[in-house]
């Protein structure tokens, strides 16, 4: 179930973004200045050199180089003779992520410092900060804006707490008064974003990292981390963790150290990078380092810094299927891969998990959406589904027998709402069944006819999206042989 309070914060090694948390809790302006020290404005060339020197990449998931964004906006402003807008994306639409909310609630001035640096360098017209309507970060951010003077007018815009609301184009649309969904065609906000002006859009943690680097300089900034990825990383560790937390660590920290800090028990797999991320095995977790390259080396991804380990007593494939269904429902529904392809992918995953179809149907459905969407949502969802099929291949083999893995789905993935509290499965009274076959015609995705013309279906619970069809199948059975009963 989705959390409603900000999780605890922990640190491995030297704190930077989380500095002062232990002493002050939330850093108001005097505490912020005491912990981090003064900061002054920077000219465009100096800010560009800094961003390039620390190889600052976006912390929202895509990892796009911040310096390239900044340069693109500067060039666009000059080419079009227009003012710029700076946008801070703190929407954090993914339910499992909490790192940006932690920054807003406990270190809001660090985020505002980074936005102010960018606004001064761009001679921006406005700063806009996008937050979710869950009301977690807005009160602290509002208080911080009342405590200080920003270089340009700064406003807070609230967007619906949906997965796709945090996509860059969706946030720009929402700020412009349009529906909070990605634009139907790909366009660069650096050319035309908020109010049609060149727009610098980046994640809240990215601006906070920029503020830290501006204070300590590129050489001290690179004292932590790796040669390729200097600095620290914020991680949200949830799922099976006995001590869920937002953790700051240097890039290159062994993943096992993070898992031990959060008291993560052994389980079947760990999702890295969030719902658009990839699964890794426990063995891979033992070798992995917390960095983009380190996680890619073991088949994972850093993404938005989300780590969701599974407990041993849940069905990993069932957990994955719930997420795919959620992602299919979170689509904008404006292009074919999202509107039709993602429901098909969710259906394929459910069929594979129930043992009604081979894994090839998942691969085919994923192939139909990859690279074809108006935004990255279809690609991310396909990546998640295919990764689950690969990492949990042994569980898939057990499910293919029709018996399943013997574990219920506990719902530990951080999805909004609770897992299916009343799972149901089909049963058949063989003394009544005459093999009419009507049930297979009503719900062919779950019931098929065997070689003798009698219905065959998995012993696992009926997927929620097929529940209505299963009820119809029960009603049309002329011999009253089919039943929908509680799954134990």
From TrEMBL:
Residues 317-362 form the NADH-ubiquinone oxidoreductase 51kDa subunit iron-sulphur binding domain. Pfam families: Complex1_51K, Fer4_15, NADH_4Fe-4S. InterPro entries: ComplexI_51kDa_subunit, Nuo51_FMN-bd, Nuo51_FMN-bd_sf, Nuop51_4Fe4S-bd, Nuop51_4Fe4S-bd_sf. It comes from the Bacteria. The keyword Chloroplast does not apply. Keywords: 4Fe-4S, Flavoprotein, FMN, Iron, Iron-sulfur, Metal-binding. GO terms for molecular function: 4 iron, 4 sulfur cluster binding; metal ion binding; NADH dehydrogenase activity. Its cofactor is FMN; [4Fe-4S] cluster. One of its GO terms (biological process) is cellular respiration. Belongs to the complex I 51 kDa subunit family. PANTHER family: NADH DEHYDROGENASE [UBIQUINONE] FLAVOPROTEIN 1, MITOCHONDRIAL, NADH-UBIQUINONE OXIDOREDUCTASE FLAVOPROTEIN 1 NDUFV1. This is NADH-quinone oxidoreductase subunit I. It comes from Micromonospora terminaliae. The lineage of its organism: Bacteria, Bacillati, Actinomycetota, Actinomycetes, Micromonosporales.
């Amino acid at each position: 179930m989705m959390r409603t309070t900000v999780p605890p914060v922990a640190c491995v090694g030297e704190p930077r973004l989380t500095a002062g948390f232990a002493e002050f809790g939330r850093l108001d302006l005097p505490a912020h200045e005491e912990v981090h020290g003064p900061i002054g404005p920077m000219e465009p060339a100096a800010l560009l050199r800094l961003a390039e020197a620390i190889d600052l990449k976006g912390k929202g998931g895509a990892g796009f180089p911040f310096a390239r964004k900044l340069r693109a906006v500067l060039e666009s402003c000059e080419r079009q003779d227009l003012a710029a807008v700076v946008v801070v994306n703190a929407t954090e639409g993914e339910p499992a992520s909490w790192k940006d909310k932690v920054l807003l609630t406990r270190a809001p001035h660090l985020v505002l410092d980074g936005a102010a640096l960018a606004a001064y360098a761009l001679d921006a017209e406005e700063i806009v900060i996008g937050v979710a309507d869950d009301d977690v970060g807005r009160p602290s951010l509002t208080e911080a804006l009342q405590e200080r003077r920003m270089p340009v007018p700064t406003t807070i815009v609230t967007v619906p707490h949906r997965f796709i609301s945090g996509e860059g184009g969706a946030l720009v649309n929402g700020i412009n008064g349009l529906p909070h969904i990605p634009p139907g065609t790909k366009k660069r906000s650096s050319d035309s974003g908020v109010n049609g002006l060149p727009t610098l859009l980046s994640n809240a943690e990215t601006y906070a990292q920029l503020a830290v680097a501006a204070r300590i300089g590129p050489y001290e900034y690179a004292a932590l981390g790796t040669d390729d990825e200097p600095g620290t990383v914020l991680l949200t560790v949830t799922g099976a963790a006995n001590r869920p937390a937002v953790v700051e660590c240097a890039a290159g920290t062994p993943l096992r150290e993070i898992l031990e800090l959060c008291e993560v028990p052994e389980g079947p797999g760990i999702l890295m990078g969030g719902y658009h991320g990839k699964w890794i095995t426990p063995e891979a977790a033992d070798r992995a380092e917390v960095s983009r390259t380190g996680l890619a080396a073991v088949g994972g991804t850093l993404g938005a810094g989300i780590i969701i380990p599974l407990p041993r007593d849940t069905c990993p494939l069932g957990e994955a299927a719930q997420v795919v269904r959620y992602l299919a429902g979170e689509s904008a529904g404006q292009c074919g891969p999202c509107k039709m392809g993602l429901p098909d992918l969710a259906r394929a995953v459910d069929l594979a998990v129930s043992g009604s179809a081979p894994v090839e149907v998942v691969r085919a459905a994923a192939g139909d959406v990859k690279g074809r969407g108006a935004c990255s949502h279809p690609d991310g969802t396909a990546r998640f589904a295919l990764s689950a099929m690969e990492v949990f291949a042994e569980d898939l083999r057990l499910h293919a027998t029709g018996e399943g893995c013997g574990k219920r789905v506990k719902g530990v993935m951080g999805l909004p709402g609770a897992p299916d509290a009343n799972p149901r499965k089909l049963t058949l009274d063989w003394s009544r069944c005459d093999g009419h076959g009507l049930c297979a015609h009503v719900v062919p995705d779950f019931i098929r006819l065997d070689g003798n013309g009698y219905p065959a279906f998995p012993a696992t619970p009926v997927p929620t999206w097929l529940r209505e069809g299963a009820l119809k199948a029960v009603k049309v059975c002329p011999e009253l042989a089919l039943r929908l009963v509680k799954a134990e």
